[in-house]
Design goal:
The chain has 4 helices and 9 strands. The chain has 160 residues and is of the alpha/beta class. The chain starts with a strand and ends with a strand.
């Protein structure tokens, strides 16, 4: 039986004495994996994503199609070793888009808020709550700074 493998993670433990490897193993008759372009960063269900898909060609290649693998996000039917920055609040999914996606999208609103937050997940949760109230599905942090006394102020753009 012929097998193929793809190493996902390779970590040297205790100064190189041991190596911990994580890999996908495929049988020879495994269906070919459809992989999308690394430039596909705009979510397909956003207003910008829908507009780019109607243009077709090179513009459509910028759209990230759900369920299709990329070099940074393996297809779920194959397996998943890391979670995305998707936050679920009350059954509603709020997702952070990266700088490349945000540069191609037009925000419909923005929010700025301040508070005392101790961790990145707590900040993302606070953003997700506010994003959901505004009716958005996606956000991008445009600025984050800390004032004297430990208060953090965050500004984000919101996308539908």
């Amino acid at each position: 039986m012929l097998l193929y493998f793809y190493v996902v993670r390779n970590v040297a433990l205790n100064d190189g004495g041991n190596i911990l490897a994580t890999a996908y193993i495929y049988a020879a008759d495994t269906p070919k994996r459809i992989v999308q372009n690394d430039n596909a960063v705009v979510p397909a269900d956003t207003e910008t994503g829908k507009a780019l898909l109607t243009k077709r060609g090179e513009e459509a290649k910028k759209v990230k199609i759900p369920g299709v693998a990329s070099s940074s996000a393996p297809k779920e039917t194959v397996g998943r070793f890391c979670e995305t920055s998707m936050l679920a609040t009350g059954g509603y999914h709020i997702e952070e888009v990266n700088k490349a996606a945000a540069a191609q999208m037009v925000p419909f609103d923005s929010i700025t808020f301040s508070g005392f937050y101790t961790s990145t997940p707590e900040i993302r949760y606070q953003i997700a709550k506010r994003t959901e109230k505004k009716g958005a599905k996606y956000f991008h942090i445009t600025r984050e700074w800390q004032a004297n006394g430990g208060s953090v102020t965050i500004s984000t753009d919101l996308y539908k």
